Each structure stands twice: as C-alpha cells, then as structure tokens.
Amino acid sequence: MKKALFIFVFLISCSSVDTEATNVPDELSVDTVTTFSPATTEVIHNHSEEHDDHSEEHDDHDIETSIMVPQGIPDKLEVLNHELGEIIEINFISDAEKEIHIHGYDIHFMVYPDKENVLEMELTIAGEFEIEDHDGGFEFARLIVSP
User: Fold this and answer.
1) CATH of residue 128
2) Tens digit of each residue's pLDDT (9 = 90 or more) over 60-97
3) Report field, pTM of the whole predicted structure over 0.85
4) Contact 124, 40 (CB under 8 A)
C-alpha cells in the first residue's frame, strides 16, 4: 500500500502544468485555449441526428464542453481542466467522419458530420491526456484531470 501511495504521489508531482512560454520555432508552436470547469471509464456514446442546445436531460453534476475537431493541425490547443471524479460530456463537432482517441483512458470515439457526437465519461484517472485525431495523428485538445 505504501509503495502504491509513493508511486501515486511521484506521478502527481511529475505531472505539473507549465504555463511558461518556451522558445519554439514558429512552424512548431501551438497556442492553447483553456476551458475551466469544476470538473469511467464508463463511456456513453451518443450520436443523435438532431441537435438541440436547449434540451438538457442530464444530471446537474454533468459538465458539458464542445470541441471543434479540426481538419488539420490546429493553431490552438483546447485545454479542458477538470477534477477527479467528475462526470463530463464532450460534444465533438466535426465536418468529416473521424476517430477521436483520448490517451490514458484509451477511448476511441467516432464522430460524424451533422450529428451530435457526445461522449460522456467519469474521470477516474488523474493526469494530462492527449485528445487526438487518431488517423491524422495530431493532438487538438488536452484533458487535465486534477486529483
């Protein structure tokens, strides 16, 4: 038990968020956009034909975020900040059919144009996780789950 606690504390101390700018060549630099929210591997896939922003049939503790899935490497990286144990819903908006991969949680989620692509998940793992266009191989968002 002590060893597991030590490993957990070590991992948390190693996963810090560095907000300082680094000198990176212009062609490699990516700006970030941070979304602050009071933040299972149980994943619920919802691909609705109709999209109604006014219908909220979720529990009060669900946190909703919308992310546009880019066609190529984005100029800005969307950052989602949440807390361990929260239940979140991410609505992926896309102009093309794509497979989204959330690292760490090992979730693969298909998104489709002209559909509501809602991924609901309980945040059971703390850390920083890439959200990427799986086929394109590029990160367009980052999920940060704080303990």
Assistant:
1) 2.60.40.420
2) 457 899 999 999 999 999 999 999 999 999 999 999 99
3) no
4) yes
Q: Could you tell me the residue range of the domain that residue 130 belongs to?
A: 30-51+59-146
Measured distance CA(145)–CA(38) in Å, rounded? 11
CB 118 within 8 A of CB 56: no
Length of the chain (residues): 147
Using CB atoms within 10 Å of the CB of residue 68, give its burial: 0 to 12 exposed, 13 to 18 middle, 19+ buried.
middle
* Residues contacting 59, CB < 8 A, separation 6+: 87
Q: Whole-angstrom Cα distance, residue 49 to residue 116?
A: 7
Q: Are 38 and 63 contacting, i.e. CB atoms less than 8 angstroms apart?
A: yes
